[in-house]
Each structure stands twice: as C-alpha cells, then as structure tokens.
Design brief:
The structure holds 2 protein chains of 2 kinds. Helices cover 35% and strands 27% of the residues of chain A. Chain A is of the alpha+beta class. The N and C termini of chain A lie far apart (44 Å). By secondary structure, chain B is α+β, with helices and mostly antiparallel strands. In chain B, the strands form 2 sheets. A 5-stranded antiparallel sheet of chain B has the order 8-1-2-9-10. Chain B has a 5-stranded antiparallel sheet with strand order 3-4-5-6-7, with helices on one face. Chain B starts with a helix and ends with a helix. Classes of the chains: A alpha+beta, B alpha+beta.
Chain lengths: 242, 259
C-alpha cells in the first residue's frame, strides 16, 4: 500500500502535487467559525501564499480543504452545483444529511487517486441546518469519505496536531469553553492556533507579518455566511496575537 | 386533415384559440425593476408561480402545471449545464430563451399532431445596474417580447405576464405611468401590487376595458389582499453575492406595505 502522504514519482524525475494545509473550525456564540491559513506547498516549495481554503458552497454551508487543491476545488464546485440544482429543481433546500453524504460520496470516488499517492483531500464541512432543529452542524472527514460530526471543534491538515492541542486546551481549561466565546475572542483563538501550527509546520502559512497576509476566516450562522474583512482580522491580530 | 396548407393554418388558428381559452384564468404576474434589484409579484391561492432558474435569473409562469414544470426543468438544466462547464457569468438569459426555449415552444405549437405547451413565461435577469436588467416574455408559440434592452426601442424597467392581452396591456400602461427605476423597495412593492390589481381587474368578459381609477385600484387591491396569499421574490442587485434570487414570505411582503 502506498502511503498517501508519500510523493508520486515517475521515470526517475519526481513530481510533487501541490497541497494546502491546516484548516480549523469550532462552534462559538455566534455560530461556527471556519479558518484556514493561505499557504499551498509542493514538497518543500511554497507554491502560493494566497490560497483560499475556506470555500462557500451555498448560503449556509462552508467546505474548508486540506490536501490537494486541484481535487478539492473541483469537489467544491460539484457540491455547489448539486446543492443549487437540488434547491432549484425540487423547490426545497437539501437536508443536512443529504449535503454531508454528497461530500462523502465525492471523497469515496476519489479514493483511487489517494491510493496512487495524489489527490488526497481531508475537508471540514460546516453548515446551518433547520432540520430536525435549527442549529449549526460541524463535520470533518477522512480521505476515504467517512464523516465525523463534532460537538465543539475540528482541525485537519499537516498543522492540525498543534491546532487540536490548542482547541482542546482552550475548550477545557481556557477562560471559557469555545461555545461561549464572543466573535473577537473566537478570532483570537483561531489566529493563535494557526500561528502556533505555522511555528512548527513549514507547510502552514500562519500569519505572514511581512506580507500582511492573514488567514481567511468565515462564520456560518442562521443569517448565512459572513466573510470577515481583512482589516478586522488585522485589528484583532494586532491587539491580541502579535 | 392537414394535407392542404390552408388546413394547417386553420388548425393552428384553432389551436391558438384553444390555448388562449385554457390560459384565460391565470393570475397576472408583475416583474418590476428597482434600485436594488427586480421584484416578482403575484397573488394566488393555489400553486407556486415564481421560480428561481439560475444565479441571476428568475421565472414567472401561467398555464398548465405540467407544461410549466417541463419548461422550468429544461431552463434550469440548460443554465446549470452552462454554468457548470463554463462559469456562472456565461449563463445568459438572452441565449437561453432565444436559442433554446423559443424554438422548442414554437415547434411544439406548430406540430399539430403533438401537444403544445400550455404556458406563458416571463423571465428576468438582474444586471449590475438597472439599465442592464433584461426582461423576456415567451409565449406558447415561441414568440418573444423584450423590455427593449436588446434592440433600439424605449427601454422599460419592468415586464408583465397576464392571461389576456387586454389585461397585460393595461398593466403595462399603468406601469409606464407609475414605475420609477430609482424607487425604493417599499414603493416598488406597492406599484407592483397595484399593477397586479389592474391586470386582475381586466380579466374576464366583463373585466375593465380601460385603466381604472386610482380609488378603484386601491379598493380592489385591499379586497384581494384579504383573501389571497402574496407570492413574491426578488433578484437582488447585490454584487457581493453569487445567488441573487430570494423568495419573500407573505408576512415579509405584508409588513413592507403597511400604510
């Protein structure tokens, strides 16, 4: 079996797929916060420093991606279209279960590529559903398509061990549990977690202080999706992180 | 029966008469452009008549539910295929109607051995500014009417769909007088409701032949509002969002017109 994290090679010349890393999501008082750093790498090369890993699928759903963006962006596109097509033709919103399963199916179909060592994607899916009761729902997946619903937080990608450590610590022994955090406090936690991940993991961009590149943060709530403006993130960053 | 050309013409004329009779009872639909988008509005008691087609396109329809459904599905299918293989920006209402729907409807209408579509459709596509809004009405025989955004004629920021020609014309002449593209949402809502009332008053054999008095329109509107549900949706001009269609609930509409 080929470990999906090893690089594919052919004809003596090795080729490394572009990958993107470290996304996190947790529930807070205003919904679900989903954040991702901006770096995409191929092996030890930084390919891109403004990658968008937190993708809006519809008015209430976000898919965040760790893994190969070529595959992940295509998955996001397929999801986006299938949710919308369902809503337009059936005249009702697809259920949360239906949406979660749709992503699972795409991951499952992609597993052949994962086994060949290319195209691994490990997403997080956050949505606000009204059935059975109105609430925010948060899932992470493995590369084979199994979905895991979480009550508090999720993190995937190469920097995720550090992020998980921080979120676990914050949730249990921080000033208050994650679900009670205000928006500013939640942003602080997300930025600190990503910055910590970047400290030990070269694949994670964290916050680029020189280039002023900040992580991308979106919030899912009953009202829909809000993308936090960069100035807002920069302001919280200066106050509580830098 | 139709070996000779004049028989064919006769068959078509009969068919037209038949379809007009079938459609004659439909509740009118008004699509009215305003500063922040396009409002679709109708009053009804039974079925949904206003639909989302694609990110910036909405449709209103009167006719047989089965035929409306087939045309609606075809429109969504075409727009979604284009949007998925290329991009949402490549989906164009003009092409959708001119190259796909109209020929299909004309064909069905003229094949006298097959069934025609018992439906009239009204489409709107919201632009980045009011001058770019496009309204297209497609008849059961494939004929297309536009708001003038395509060829050189006076541009109108609204369009109507009604069961009879007279009703539609009266709605248009009402909107020509009353509509302002710069109006706010609440005012647009009132104008659309009044336009609907005008159209509704003109339906039937003994319907209004000329534009009714203001007082009569208001009275009719109030009477109808107490008995029927309001169905409305907007295509928002908000450039930050990809999907502009938003259905409005009955309460939302009623609270915005509270006088």
């Amino acid at each position: 079996m080929v470990d999906p994290t090893t690089r594919a090679s052919s004809g003596g010349q090795s080729w490394t797929p572009t990958e993107s890393t470290t996304i996190l999501a947790f529930k807070f008082s205003g919904g679900v916060l989903v954040a991702g750093d901006r770096r995409a790498t191929a092996g030890n090369t930084v390919v891109y420093d403004r990658a968008d890993k937190v993708l809006e699928i519809d008015r209430h759903s976000i898919m965040a991606i760790a893994g190969v963006p070529a595959t992940a962006w295509e998955m996001a596109r397929v999801l986006e279209h299938s949710f919308q097509y369902f809503r337009r033709t059936q005249l009702q919103e697809m259920s949360v279960d239906g949406k979660v399963r749709a992503l699972s199916k795409l991951l499952r179909d992609n597993f052949g590529f994962v086994m060949q060592g290319v195209g691994v994607v490990v997403p997080i899916f956050a949505t606000y559903g009204s059935n059975p009761k109105p609430e925010a729902r948060l899932y992470f997946y493995d590369a084979m398509g199994a979905q895991f619903e979480v009550t508090d937080y999720a993190a995937t990608g190469s920097g995720s061990p550090a992020v998980r450590g921080i979120l676990y610590h914050e949730n249990n022994w921080g000033e208050k549990p994650l679900q009670k955090l205000s928006e500013d406090e939640a942003i602080t936690v997300a930025l600190r977690a990503l910055d910590t991940a970047a400290e030990a993991d070269t694949s994670t961009g964290g916050v680029d202080r020189g280039g002023k590149i900040f992580p991308l943060i979106k919030i899912v709530s009953r009202e829909g999706i809000t993308t936090l403006p960069e100035e807002k993130i920069a302001q919280v960053f200066r106050q509580t992180v830098a | 029966m139709i070996e000779e050309p004049y028989r064919w013409v006769e068959a078509i004329a009969n068919r037209r008469e038949y379809i007009e009779t079938q459609l004659a009872a439909g509740s009118p639909i008004a699509a009215v452009g305003y500063q922040d988008g396009i409002l679709f509005l109708t009053l009804g008691r039974a079925r949904q008549k206003i639909f989302e087609i694609y990110d910036r396109i909405a449709m209103g329809a009167i006719g047989h539910p089965g035929d409306i459904e087939r045309l609606r599905m075809a429109a969504i299918e075409l727009a979604s295929t284009e949007g998925f293989t290329r991009s949402a920006a490549d989906v164009s209402l003009r092409r959708l109607v001119h190259y796909s729907l109209s020929p299909v409807m004309k064909n069905a209408f003229e094949q006298v051995y097959g069934p025609p579509y018992l439906a009239r459709l009204l489409f709107a596509e919201v632009g980045s500014k009011p001058e770019e809004d496009l309204f297209l009405r497609v008849e059961y025989d494939g004929a297309i009417a536009t708001n003038g955004a395509v060829i050189s004629q006076a541009r109108q920021g609204f369009a109507v769909l009604s069961a009879t020609r007279r009703s539609g014309e009266l709605m248009e002449s009402f909107l020509k007088k009353e509509h302002s593209g710069a109006a706010a949402f609440e005012d647009t809502m009132k104008v659309a409701l009044d336009a609907w009332s005008v159209g509704h008053m003109a339906l039937g054999e003994d319907g209004a032949k000329e534009l009714p008095e203001r007082v009569a329109i208001t009275r009719h509107r109030q009477e109808q509002l107490s008995g029927a549900g309001i169905e409305a949706a907007v295509l928002e001009r908000d450039l930050k969002r990809a999907i502009r269609y938003r259905p409005l609930s009955d309460e939302e509409v009623r609270s915005s017109i509270r006088e």
